[in-house]
Amino acid sequence: MPEIHGIIAYPVTPFADEGIDTERLAALVDRLVSAGVHAIAPLGSTGELAYLDEPEFDAVVDTTIATVAGRVPVIVGVSDVTTAKTIRRAQYGQRAGADAVMILPVSYWKLSEREIVQHYRSVSDAISIPIMAYNNPATSGVDMPPELLVRMFETIANVTMIKESTGDLTRMQRIDELSGGRLPFYNGSNPLVLDALRAGASGWCTAAPNLRPQPCIDLYEAVRAGDLDKAQALYDDLKPLLQFIVAGGLATTVKAGLELLGFPVGNPRAPLLPLDAQGRAELKELLAG
Fold first, then answer.
1. Residues of the chain with confidence (pLDDT) below 50
2. pTM
3. Is 46 within any annotated ligand binding site?
4. Where does the UniProt annotation place the signal sequence (predicted)?
């Protein structure tokens, strides 16, 4: 499997009247890869996975992997409330050519650690490609502490990397400590990116490259080269945009931003709403700056 590192870009899912606008999705994915991102991760929160039906999921996977055409790794988000549908999606992603899948445990009922472990083990047993375990309690309602994540890494064959999105740097440091540095962790909290990369994160999982790819790439490369002054300057420049897209909802703000940049991709899917006029005005200033 190719090494997964650096800027892992999360494209939005463009919609048309009849469903997924696959032509626009292909153009967006190609735009990101051509800009120099290090991996593509369709069907995360930014890609509105929770609002897609299964044929739409399949269309996004097929379009993304065909467009990437092996140029960078593809990590497909496959999360669902049920284990059965998560398995179906993971198997589809593997057959389509995904390099890895990302799983966020989502549940109406609070899951016990025993249930979380079994969920991941069941998916792992059904596929043969790596799993990125994704911890984001703000959206999933399920919190996986570092001790649990490292235990799954040690006991479930295909759990090989972690995306940590709580915004708590000590969790990443704890994952690194408990695993003896063997478990790659990736930052999923946009405002935390500089501290996370300095702490040894293998990459940054982010929607920001949809709008400003080059500064994101430059930030990662600056940290990698040890040029922390340059990294700090890049982060300071990006920070207002990162804070805005997180606060306003990634799909909503990124789609509005792409339209402002002359690359319309449609509106988010209801119950999500397009960005309001005040938000668009603020976003326009951020993109112009």
1. none
2. 0.96
3. yes
4. none
